[in-house]
Amino acid sequence: MNPVRTCVGCRQRGNRSDLIRIANFQGNLSVDSEKKMPGRGSWLHKKTKCLETAVERKAFVRSFRGKVNEEQVTDLFKQIEQAEMMLEI
Ligand SMILES: [Zn+2]
């Protein structure tokens, strides 16, 4: 049993194990590598393109219902890049 989640970038669905979880915990966006942080989560494919699409579409801001700002999204972007989590362009 592998739950399916929707990527905030491309809007395609994928297996939970193929997506990374972004958590908004107490107003801070972070990569939830263990996929068990409390708070609302957004899911993203491990693809740079999906990340870029999500940023362009302001999908994170929407997904977290306006509770995050662009600056937080930029920081998140850096976190993901530094962690080299993206497996594909
Ligand atoms: Zn995607």
Relevant terms:
single chain, 89 residues, alpha+beta, Hypothetical Cytosolic Protein, Chain: A, three-stranded antiparallel beta sheet, two-stranded antiparallel ribbon, 5 strands, globular, binds zinc ion
Question: Can you walk me through this structure?
Answer:
This protein has helices at 48-56, 59-63, 70-83, and strands at 4-6, 13-15, 19-25, 28-32, 40-45. With 89 residues, the chain is an alpha+beta fold. It has one domain (4-83): YlxR-like (Hypothetical Cytosolic Protein, Chain: A). The chain has a three-stranded antiparallel β-sheet with strand order 4-3-5, with helices on one face. Strands 1-2 form a two-stranded antiparallel sheet. The relative contact order is 0.21. Bound molecules: zinc ion (ZN).
Listing every helix as H and every strand as E from the N terminus to the C terminus, the arrangement reads EEEEEHHH
CATH fold-level assignment: Hypothetical Cytosolic Protein, Chain: A
Mean pLDDT: 90
Q: How many angstroms does the end-to-end distance come to?
A: 28 Å
Q: Based on Cα principal axes, name the global outline.
A: globular
Percent strand: 25-35%
CATH class assignment: Alpha Beta
> Numbering strands along the chain, what is their spatial order in the largest sheet?
4-3-5
Radius of gyration, taken over Cα atoms and rounded to an integer in Å: 12 Å
Provide the domain count. Answer: 1
Tally the helices.
3
